[in-house]
């Protein structure tokens, strides 16, 4: 619809309101609230669904109530007659609106026929009734405008008979229209089905109004003139409900995405979107990696190029290769469709980034573990090289010097003592080299595993230390080395900082993990932050996927616990 | 002084064997040599040494395994384990082995070996 028509409709609605206010207040038309509300909702619906005919239909219904009223009140014979001719058409327009809901289009030729027949019977019966209606029947003689179509003096009985027949025909057509609406609801799925629900309540009410205000029944004027017209407000209510529903769905989409737990599967995303939209038929489909078609989250093949009847396809984003397949009725709410696609896109992008970060984290973890293992292997090699090379040579040198000393001592005591001091130097060098080698990598760990290595550590510890338990089994080298370094570093700290009288070492194997615990009865107050060796130890434990815990209340001793994953 | 016994030096390091042989021969021992665990068990059968000075780190088996094999032989010799490392570097392995003791390589002397021979249980190592 173009801008001029829209402007005209707006102007008409304003004029109608003005007209009511000017003529009398409260307005003496029983349909005044209906007329005005339909006209206003028509404009709003047009604004909301620019591509749909619903806005125009709402407006037409409003004006078809309004125009006859104005014409009849113009005190002009021709206007009065035309006003009477088209008084009933508004009901036909209302039926068309119900049949065209929610897309604005009639669904079949049969329905078009029903709508045309409904308009036609209204015009035919109104015309016939006008021809036999003498305004004098209603008691106004000179004050009423003349009926230009009046045949003779008219006939009240003919008018009554025509009214009864018209009401019966109207009853049949109302029944057909209501049946069709129920069939629309039954065949609709997803969004469209939900959109039909308010109509399902409202249409019978309007149908009842249509029947009751016909000539078949006679009600007190309060019912006929005040209450029944109010039922027609159901029409505008239909628009308000659908608008509120779309708005609610928009809000629910945001909540659904926020509530979606991190790393949720596409299936859960679909469920969340379907719940928020109130469209259980919503499908989220992804392009197959080989590009051969799409699969939805339940594993069904989807062809976005040829959606099933009543279905529509909306791409999520080009990059994600995902599409939403939804009820075609949702196309009525392009804003909501865009919002859904955007929400899906955000969630998918979030999931993709999360998977990427997770993968990177895994890579970093693996490479850290490899670095530590490579470092351990290098230290083992260094220790072995020292042992096989420099240490052996120093031993041999030391022995040679000893022999030289023994021989020289008899002939030349001075030379003897010189060689003795050289021999002593060699032995000290050997001792230092042993310490160095042990610091680089404890051979005992490679040789005997944790049992011997922890025993050796405890024997060298200056603080009285007891071993509560150490398993005899062998574990992967990286895990043994980590457990060893935890105990070694802990005992060094006990000796240096704890001022403890005694310490205890406990290593225990649980299914899937190794628990290493060193505790002392010292001053406590140790912290893993700062520059202490505990930070490095925590890193070392983390490199094999473990956790280091330090419990060291001031004055309460220190308990160091490493929980290491272990097959 | 104990009667001189045959000593079997088991070590893959030529330099050490040479010096040890010189030192022990000077101390009055008869000396035989082996460079691997396999050689050691073979030599023990032919040489029938009173004492085997056994390096823990050998190219084929480790010294503990060789000590077990020697202990299983008839008239098993006294076995003294040795290494450039210290005893504590082997945890409880030395105590658990059938060897009578451990001597750091740099403390090797004829007197030290005689002490081991003297401590050895009666009948052991007296082929």
Please describe the structure with a list of short key phrases separated by commas or semicolons:
heterodimer, A: 567 residues, alpha+beta, 4 domains, 5-stranded antiparallel beta sheet, 17 helices, 10 strands, B: 127 residues, alpha/beta, Rossmann fold, 5-stranded parallel beta sheet, 5 strands, 20% strand
Account of the protein in words:
The complex is a heterodimer of chains A (567) and B (127). In chain A, helix 2 (32-48) packs parallel to helix 10 (234-259), helix 10 packs parallel to helix 12 and helix 16 (477-498) runs antiparallel to helix 17. Chain A has helices at residues 3-23, 32-48, 54-72, 77-85, 89-100, 109-132, 156-187, 190-212, 221-231, 234-259, 266-277, 334-411, 413-440, 443-448, 450-460, 477-498, 533-543, and strands at 283-287, 294-296, 301-302, 311-317, 322-327, 464-469, 502-510, 513-520, 547-551, 558-565. Chain A starts with a helix and ends with a strand. Chain A is rod-shaped, with a radius of gyration of 47 Å. By secondary structure, chain A is of the alpha+beta class. Chain A folds into 4 domains: 3-245, no CATH class; 246-356; 363-440; 447-565, Heat Shock Protein 90 (2-Layer Sandwich). Chain B is an alpha/beta fold and 127 residues long. Helices cover 37% and strands 20% of the residues of chain B. Chain B is globular and about 35 Å long. Residues 122-127 of chain B have low confidence and may be disordered.
